[in-house]
Amino acid sequence: MSGRKGSVIGFDVTAALTQGGGIGRYTRELVHALVVEAPHFAYKLFSARPPAALPVPDSLPVAAHVSHHPAPVDEHWLYRLWYRARLPVPIQLFMGGIDLFHSPDFVLPPVGGRVPTLVTVHDLSFIHYPATFPPNLVAYLNRVVPWSVNRATHILADSLSTARDLQALWRVAAERITVLYSGVNERFRPVTDTAALASARRKYGLDHPYILAVGTVQPRKNYELLVRAFRPVAERYPHSLIIVGGKGWLDEGLPAEIARQGLQDRVILAGFVDDADLPAIYSAADLLAFPSLYEGFGLPLLEAMACGTPVISSDASSLPEVGADGSAELLSPHDEEAWTAAMLRLLGDENARGRLIAAGLARSTQFSWRSSARQLAALYDLLLYGENF
What we know:
- By secondary structure, the protein is an alpha/beta fold.
- It has 16 helices and 13 strands.
- α2 crosses α16.
């Protein structure tokens, strides 16, 4: 075991409690793995009090070296205090003494004393594609994320793509950035039990063979192009297109595009799917289609690969890092005809699908939350004790 026993890590788990997917899942997976892989630390888990309707149940680890420190106010009040008024109210007021503080969700609150700090920047999509966000959110992120990055001792990036963006757009020194890839939970594996597959299909009304898309419904996910590309597929195959993901923002265009293409009965907006059901949903799909304009990492690719589902992905931003070694068919997110052709070809070519499945299964084994947690714990040690801890 590396490091010195007893150092106290402050970790913001607000997203773990309030967001089902995306950064919420990242935070839950990482903190659970950290508690197991690096028990030489004590963990103080901070959260803004989540609104009553939003908490994600069973989202935090329970162990002797873990304590939870919720603030007595919700995150909106704290954001106004910390990031709009920029009042220097230290996080220690809510959680007591800490030796290091890590915020895994873009923004860094005030931290008192000479405590090293770490902030995770997942992507800079709000700079590359501002039109895919509400204007007030773009203004907020452009104000608080660079402010947080400039104050942090060190920055975690989800991918080499994000690390390069930080260097190119904000001139962040390379030595201040560490790339920490996400993992894939061990529950994601091919589901072959027919009863489990049938149960998931019934629960979400999946009566036909289907192509799957996973991710919050928002313009950056590029679902409108996918719907247009899917129409010729629907004319030749009995498949539905199932879009799994919670409601995001600026999503009014998707139902309108579905109606324009006359696909109301063939495109299903399934909404948020319970994590426990996802392996069966992936396993029952004939393809995963992921046409996103920009991603910090692209976890659905790995999850689909681990479940034995062939993947067609955008070739933008970080996605070639995830879909390397022939594990995904990579296409321009702007080439509608290429997406149609790839779906048609793979649905009709069992050998091509088999090659993608095999490559994807092999690729998914290279990523685990346990290894991510061990890398992160080593970084904590470095920030706390220096190179010769």
